[in-house]
Amino acid sequence: MENLVILSLARNNISSLAGLEAVGGTLEQLWMSYNDLQQLKELAELPKLKILYITHNRIRSWDEVARIAAHGSLQEVSFRGNPLVEDLEEDEDYFAKMIPCLPNLRKLDGEPIVRIEGEV
């Protein structure tokens, strides 16, 4: 597993990312959709992570988005289906709220991010 680049653990009732540090030096894609994750603190152990699919978990806190934002290498995230997205008010724009939090993101939920020069 020392050369693992893509890890798919979707639909396994996983509630923690603990133990991923073993593949932290090589892992670039982590597919964790349809699990029971509430926190993403272990992402700090994955410095090469570029793609994170984490739809339909139990993430409620925008603090967890901040953990993702600290990841300079992250380019693509899928986050829909988590309570923090589903609980937004009707007039709140999910993309408008997420994109400023994730300045290096190129794709959010499969949609390309188009940035205007000079915008954050």
Automatic annotation (TrEMBL):
Cell membrane keyword on record: no
GO-annotated cellular components: cytoplasm
InterPro entries xrefs: Leu-rich_rpt, LRR_dom_sf, NXF1/2/3/5-like_LRR
Keywords in alphabetical order: Leucine-rich repeat, Repeat
Domain of life: Eukaryota
Gene3D superfamilies membership: Ribonuclease Inhibitor (3.80.10.10)
Limits of the NXF1/2/3/5-like leucine-rich repeat domain: 27-110
Secreted keyword on record: no
Protein name: Putative dynein light chain 1 axonemal
Species this chain originates from: Lutzomyia longipalpis
Lineage: Eukaryota, Metazoa, Ecdysozoa, Arthropoda, Hexapoda
